[in-house]
Amino acid sequence: DQQVKQNSPSLSVQEGRISILNCDYTNSMFDYFLWYKKYPAEGPTFLISISSIKDKNEDGRFTVFLNKSAKHLSLHIVPSQPGDSAVYFCAAPSLAGGTSYGKLTFGQGTILTVHP
Amino acid sequence: KAGVTQTPRYLIKTRGQQVTLSCSPISGHRSVSWYQQTPGQGLQFLFEYFSETQRNKGNFPGRFSGRQFSNSRSEMNVSTLELGDSALYLCASSPGQGFEQYFGPGTRLTVT
Question: How far does the CA of residue B41 sit from the closest CA of chain A (Å)?
Fold first, then answer.
């Protein structure tokens, strides 16, 4: 059962334009979400997070939006830069087993390519 | 602060062997989680240790085990390796409260 889904395997954008990465979830108990970026041969790097008490969180060029009624979140990168080319994962702390400690459930990832 | 370190970075083993991977968390972090990344299954949670105790466990067979030492360093062990265990094994640390985790570079395990 895939509780966190990223339905777009890849996204290609031009440098300077906006990149929008989408993520859907099925478990309404999720109340916190994170985005990670991963370059080849490296571990994921934490980017930005959002709590369900907010509908938006901003950090520099990165903004995450949360729509709880649609169980949907998105990551906006403005302006996109070639160095942003990477795989982006959304993740949520999983509440299975009665504890969320240490367990993140990840989406399958979206490969972002930013062309100069 | 130094980041999460994992050793070795690359490993080739034969089916049926066992392997031990090591992870050193960020200084001051008491929680260590392990994940397996494969092309087909994505990032899957293996287990998490906090203060030398396993607090959470994913849906992996008993061949996968781990432990944490008093200095928060952690090891994971896979016994009786199968071809399907070929994957990138990632370790992540966190302070123990909150949800952000910080990942190491991973160990690429190839089973032949």
Answer: 8
